Amino acid sequence: MKVLGIETSCDETGVAVFDTAIGGAAGLRAHAVYSQIALHAEYGGVVPELASRDHVRKLLPLIRQTLAEADLSTRDLDGVAYTAGPGLVGALLVGAGVARSLAWALDVPAIGVHHMEGHLLAPLMEDADPLLGPPQPPFVALLVSGGHTQLVAVDAIGVYRLLGETLDDAAGEAFDKTAKLMGLPYPGGPQLAALAEHGTPGAFRFPRPMTTRPGLDFSFSGLKTQVLLAWQGSDQSEATRADIARGFEDAVVDTLAIKCARALDATGCNTLVVAGGVGANTRLRAKLQADAQRRGGRVCFPRPALCTDNGAMIAFAGALRLEAGQSSDAAVHVTPRWDMATLPPLAAA
């Protein structure tokens, strides 16, 4: 089954084709992402109306480009998957409208995909370990991005239990806001992580929020405040900026790692899957890989290009559900707020 995936939940336009007949990483026939970073940079954040308009401008050309790279035409498609939520309602409607129209014209099924399920399943597309293959449920998933920080018990595909989540800022949001308060350009998160590479470990040590109390929830707003106070009380030199960035990144990475270890202990699982934009952070990857090796367990990531929002994860997640006989009706439905626990389980094909 060849499935076109469309992602327009926020400020990236993503398109991909996944072929289930090939499967694995090779099943990703082509994918492309157009980022709106330059468009929103002057505003210091995503402007929803501008995001929607830019999706309208870029989506059809990106579909043509992706199909050409896959050496396919629209007539070769067997299904269409699109992000139906959560996300910005206007942006979601652009992708959903195009996807439903295309599916109707081709007389193929379409399915609305949960954005976070797309992230969660992205590592299952990879063949990173030739001996073990892709991770299989049950496992614990850390979904960590600009909009979400969640720990989820994955009992089966489509059977999810929320173990813990952020009570305020998501980890990626904390990266962006911390970078902004120290004067780094938009988008700040990647800039801060790059700056931290030049910082001195331990020069600034910030608290590891909510790690001294039981539970699996997160909180990063207080950490952001601590960084602000440290920055305002410093000489604000470039060296100090790098040292503070390193201290902040270490605090976030340690906090995420501590909570992941607790979640694995609580569920009795030994496999951790990490997805979302912050999953591309090299220090987080190294820390979780070292922890997994020490525990005798396993941690799985998608390739860095598939950590951020992309059409490949939507095509893959949609293909799994379409092959299982699930599809959406002909109406254009989006769900800006959508609890992943309400998703139906993946039925047998």
From TrEMBL:
Cofactor(s) needed: Fe(2+)
Function noted in UniProt: Required for the formation of a threonylcarbamoyl group on adenosine at position 37 (t(6)A37) in tRNAs that read codons beginning with adenine. Is involved in the transfer of the threonylcarbamoyl moiety of threonylcarbamoyl-AMP (TC-AMP) to the N6 group of A37, together with TsaE and TsaB. TsaD likely plays a direct catalytic role in this reaction.
Organism of derivation: Luteimonas chenhongjianii
Keywords of this entry: Acyltransferase, Cytoplasm, Iron, Metal-binding, Transferase, tRNA processing
Annotated GO biological process: tRNA threonylcarbamoyladenosine modification
Residues the entry annotates as binding Fe cation: 115, 119, 309
Cofactor note (record): Binds 1 Fe(2+) ion per subunit.
HAMAP family, per database record: TsaD
Highest taxon of source: Bacteria
Pfam families documented for this protein: TsaD
NCBIfam families per UniProt: gcp_kae1, T6A_TsaD_YgjD
Localization annotation: Cytoplasm
Keyword Repressor in annotation: no
PANTHER family, per the entry: TRNA N6-ADENOSINE THREONYLCARBAMOYLTRANSFERASE, TRNA N6-ADENOSINE THREONYLCARBAMOYLTRANSFERASE, MITOCHONDRIAL
Name of the protein: tRNA N6-adenosine threonylcarbamoyltransferase
